[in-house]
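ok so I'm stuck.
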Amino acid sequence: ITATGSGLFKRKETPELNLQGQLTPQYARLAPLLHPYVGRETVFSGSKPGAFQLSLPLTSPLQWEKVALLAELPVDTLRFRGINVGPLTLPLELHRNKLRVRIDGQLDGGRVALAPLWDLSVPQPLLTIPASTPCLTNVPVNAPLVDGVLGRLHPLFGGLAQAQGAVDVRINQFSMPITQKAGQGPVFTVSVAVDRLQFKPTEPLQELF
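replied:
not stuck anymore, here's the structure
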């Protein structure tokens, strides 16, 4: 990350440094550090600078629970399992060892919205998404969406039928431990609205009738 800015040094009981300026993430170099937090299938690209504000206690060791960061990160493309979203700006907030990023953008004429929260204050860091969160709204069904998301949720998508139309997806509950170890995947439930979809049975389903 490249950062430029200016700030103030506050002499208090705990000295504090306040900075504001511009930062430019080098997403390719950050990828190995981000993988445990966003997964290997989530890829960011872009090189535009974004604004940030940072409040940092000058202590040794650093008291992370007192670090506060606000930033806006321009992203050219956010790619997940072949699904491309962007360009968009990601508001980021770090407060009391909890990091939240807000994703709100267009996807093939529909809308994708997420507000993942990484709780870094607990011994086993945890990624959660607020309950009853609309994730996809009026998003046309296409091959990347079926292969990357919908087909993994229900065999009706891709395996048993070909879907045409638009879909809504709501995340009812989602949590995933942040760990370097393999095999600890997310626990989640979702609701998929299919009232604007038409299904054409594939050959395996046709053979049942």
